[in-house]
Automatic annotation (TrEMBL):
SMART domains: eIF-5a. Belongs to the eIF-5A family. InterPro entries: IF5A-like (IPR001884), IF5A-like_N (IPR048670), IF5A_C (IPR020189), NA-bd_OB-fold (IPR012340), Rib_uL2_dom2 (IPR014722), Translation_prot_SH3-like_sf (IPR008991). Keywords: Hypusine, Protein biosynthesis. Residues 8-21 have a biased composition (Polar residues). Residues 1-21 are annotated as: Disordered. NCBIfam families: eIF_5A (TIGR00037). This is Eukaryotic translation initiation factor 5A. Residues 84-156 form the Translation initiation factor 5A C-terminal domain. One of its GO terms (molecular function) is RNA binding. Translation factor that promotes translation elongation and termination, particularly upon ribosome stalling at specific amino acid sequence contexts. Binds between the exit (E) and peptidyl (P) site of the ribosome and promotes rescue of stalled ribosome: specifically required for efficient translation of polyproline-containing peptides as well as other motifs that stall the ribosome. Acts as ribosome quality control (RQC) cofactor by joining the RQC complex to facilitate peptidyl transfer during CAT tailing step. eIF-5A seems to be the only eukaryotic protein to have a hypusine residue which is a post-translational modification of a lysine by the addition of a butylamino group.
Length: 161
């Protein structure tokens, strides 16, 4: 048997996007995977252990990309998936006619694969970004990343250094 026959291709089943945490240690304001969606926890409650069971944690959260509410429950001693969530700021360079934005990293490289959010919940954010950009203000755009997805979640005026 040659060395070439022992090489396997490794697939990515999404495990690198999450880690596990005990359901009993989850807190309001944290993040959790509910029904396969990365959510920000809006409520966590625990029930006492029953005669034959474990104490349970009831978790309610809002999807960080769609704002849809999800609920789930799990024994507090069991592990539950938690997404790695990062927030990064970019300098806004331009807004294209189709809603895509051109953003600049700290190292000067550009990012052109993000579109302004299109949901009703984000209407005010998009209006604010467009109005300030049209007024010639330098803006920093906050981008939330989780599970291989990204979304523009905020903006602020850049401060002169």
């Amino acid at each position: 048997m040659s060395d070439d026959e022992n090489q396997f291709e490794q697939g990515n089943a999404g495990s690198s996007h999450t880690y596990t945490e005990s359901a009993g240690s989850l807190k309001k304001g944290g993040y959790v995977m509910l029904k396969g969606h990365p959510c920000k926890i809006t409520d966590v409650s625990t029930s006492k252990a029953g005669k034959h069971g474990h104490a349970k944690a009831s978790i309610v959260g809002k999807d960080i990309f769609t704002n849809k509410t999800y609920e789930d429950s799990a024994p507090t001693s069991h592990n539950i998936d938690v997404p790695f969530v990062t927030k990064k700021e970019y300098t806004l360079m331009d807004i294209q006619g189709d809603g895509f934005v051109i953003l600049m990293n700290e190292d000067g490289s550009t990012k052109e694969d993000l579109k302004l959010p299109e949901t009703e919940d984000d209407f005010n954010l998009v209006k604010e970004i467009r109005d300030q950009f049209d007024a010639g203000k330098d803006l920093l755009i906050s981008v939330l990343s989780a599970m291989g997805e990204e979304k523009i979640v905020g903006s602020r005026e850049a401060q002169d250094k």
